[in-house]
What does this fold into?
Amino acid sequence: MGTNSSTPHRSYTVAPAMQSPTSGALPYTTGAALKARFTAIAKQDPRYRVNKLQRQFAYDRILSRCFSTEDAHRWVLKGAGALLARLPEARHSKDVDLYYAELTAAPDEATAALVVAADRDIGDHFRFEVTKTTPLQEATKGRRIHLSTYLGGLYATFHVDVVVGTPMMSGQPDLVPPLTPLHIEGLVRPPYRPSRCLIIVPTSSARSSKPKSRPASLT
It folds into this structure.
């Protein structure tokens, strides 16, 4: 996966099947209604797949709850999700990795903060249930929180890995747009704070067997 610059997400406004939302109402209440919108986006841009857009939107809903709270400055998106937020063509992530940026916080405190965020009602018709929490493996301090996401019926299941106690970067993370390129008037979609990451760029010389790495473009 080589690239010389980050490609910004394009935002698509898809004509709704219902009238434009008014008074905070949103033009979807079921997964089927969202799938129709994602299908239209995938037809316009071959980089996107409907099933991946649907799953990324579930990630976006939990991230929107984290990054729209008074504790938003304590959350940092990391791992494959951070790369995907910068580069739409990056490999799809099967889960969400978050760093809770309080060096003295215990795993239970970070877990409680995520549960509080997941319980927030931001008017998007989504609901989250924590089904299980387990300690992260090896020396990493944190918890794996398993979530079921509902939009009417069950929409998606995935887990969020929350890490605490270890500085993840130097400097302040930048703000980037949400994962899915979907614009819906009235939908709460704050920018994310992803960790800085490295993009592997192949060298132009065939004699070199090692790829060079450079910081991801922050624009």
Observations:
- Helices lie at 31-44, 50-66, 79-86, 107-118.
- Residues 1-24, 197-219 have pLDDT under 50 and may be disordered.
